[in-house]
Write a structure and sequence with these properties.
3 helices, plasmid, mainly alpha, globular
Length: about 70
């Protein structure tokens, strides 16, 4: 029997994550398909309970400056 560790992300929250990622990609001038590391960061933050656009963007900023 396989265990499922991933959480399901409701459509509204998925839209939030996508909009943050899109804004980040536009600002950084990178293609969304090249932003897999950033997408993983957003999903990890989401799993930790982060639902704020500002907090998600901060997580991306912090990940690229350290």
């Amino acid at each position: 029997m396989m265990q499922k560790f991933d959480i399901a992300i409701p459509p509204n929250d998925l839209n939030l994550l996508q909009s943050v990622l899109d804004a980040w990609c536009t600002q950084q001038r990178i293609l969304r398909k090249d932003a897999t590391a950033e997408a993983k960061i957003l999903i990890n933050e989401y799993k930790r309970g982060i639902r704020s656009q500002i907090a998600l963007i901060d997580a991306l900023i912090n990940s690229t400056t350290h």
